[in-house]
Amino acid sequence: MTIPRALTIAGSDSGGGAGIQADLKTFQELGVFGMSALTAITAQNTQTVTGIYELSEEAVGRQIDAVVEDIGVDAVKTGMIASISIMEVIADKVRQHRLSPLVIDPVMISKSGAALLDQPARQALKQTLLPLATLVTPNLHEAEVIVNRSLSTSQERMDAAKQILDMGASAVIIKGGHTEDEEAVDLFYDGEEFHTFSAPRYHTPHTHGTGCTFSAALAASLAKGESMYKAVETAKQFITKAISHSLNIGKGHGPTNHWAYNRYSKD
Ligand SMILES: Nc1ncnc2c1ncn2[C@@H]1O[C@H](COP(=O)(O)OP(=O)(O)O)[C@@H](O)[C@H]1O
Ligand SMILES: Cc1ncc(COP(=O)(O)OP(=O)(O)O)c(N)n1
After folding, report:
1. In angstroms, rounded to a whole number, what is the distance separating the alpha carbons of residues 18 and 143?
2. What is the Cα–Cα distance from 225 to 210, expressed in whole angstroms?
3. Of the bound ligands, which one is closest to the alpha carbon of residue 232?
4. Tens digit of each residue's pLDDT (9 = 90 or more) over 144-199
5. Which numbered ligand comes closest to the C-alpha of 51?
6. pLDDT for residue 266
7. In this predicted structure, what is the pLDDT of residue 179?
8. For ligand 2, what atom is nearest to the CA of residue 11?
9. What confidence tens digit (pLDDT) does each residue in 196-221 have?
10. Which of 94, 136, 163, 267 is least buried, going by the fewest C-beta atoms within 10 A?
11. 116 ligand 2 Cβ < 6 A
């Protein structure tokens, strides 16, 4: 039996709802062996981020080398990257080890408002990491930063998706968590066709870690050999279930429920 293996290169969320913790929980629920390379440690809960402690470039690089050279990796995702120097190490390691498929979640700001990627790195992303992406998963705000304009209409989002592929990514999904629409509609483009993936929008404050969980589910599904289209379908079902059963934990935005996809599959 082959065991699918996925690596997350991301930051730690001490509150357990986002970052490495959300990724590993998601990998586990989807039957994938999870590994991690930490980029930064955040002191974080459901209300706020009170500290960010970046790891050295050497520490990031060595974690990636260690798991790739021994265990092997069937899919990789990146989350919080923090700075340009860490981004450059990740890009070097992706090239050196030919890491693929690569899901890039271009995390910039937490829901509580903390900067998880510094300003210069937000621009560097376009040259450094996007050209290596099998799939990049910006939310609306991140897509606007990448193309440097506001994206109010679906036509503007389609044009932005094309522009992101022109930057070198193989496919993009612009997530619809932050729109006013009645449904949560994600726009997928792979250079050939546009697809939308829709689900009911849940009016809950407990959405901490939605983007991390979604991109981790994508990486896990790709690690299992699912096609890109099927992986997006699986990830959308996983995150929708996790939001519909989200957890009222802490005093702020509680986390999504990583066990809901398996435990409440009949709802
Ligand atoms: N309130 C919601 N109800 C249903 N789906 C949601 C809701 N908020 C986000 N989603 C979905 O969760 C996934 C992550 O999207 P989003 O929240 O935009 O990412 P991020 O955490 O990066 O801001 C997407 O599939 C999006 O459509
Ligand atoms: C350590 C860490 N990484 C990423 C995030 C952002 O996660 P996201 O899924 O976008 O969720 P919110 O922060 O928007 O709730 C994070 N908070 N911490």
Report:
1. 20
2. 23
3. 1
4. 999 999 999 999 999 999 999 999 999 999 999 998 889 999 999 999 999 999 99
5. 2
6. 62
7. 86
8. 1
9. 999 999 999 999 999 999 999 999 99
10. 267
11. yes
Whether complex ipTM tops 0.90: yes
Query: Could you tell me the two tokens for 96?
Result: 């050196």
> Which of 78, 134, 207, 256 is flagged as catalytic?
207
User: Of 31, 190, 22, 211, nearest to 104 (Cα)?
Assistant: 211
Residue type, 95: R
Segment 73-98 shows an average pLDDT of 97
| Sequence ranges of the domains in the chain | 5-259
Q: What is the 3-state secondary structure (H, E, C) of the chain?
A: CCCCEEEEEEEEECCCCCHHHHHHHHHHHCCCEEEEEEEEEEEECCCCEEEEEECCHHHHHHHHHHHHHHCCCCEEEECCCECHHHHHHHHHHHHHHCCCCEEECCCCECCCCCECECHHHHHHHHHHCHHHCCEECCCHHHHHHHHCCCCCCHHHHHHHHHHHHHCCCCCEEECCCCCCCCEEEEEEECCCCEEEEEEECCCCCCCECHHHHHHHHHHHHHHCCCCHHHHHHHHHHHHHHHHHCCCCCCCCCCECCCCHHHHCCCC
User: CA end-to-end span of the chain, whole Å?
Assistant: 31
Tell me, which fold does domain 5-259 have in CATH?
A: UDP-N-acetylmuramoyl-L-alanine:D-glutamate ligase (3.40.1190)
179 part of the active site: no
- Give the mean pLDDT of the chain: 96
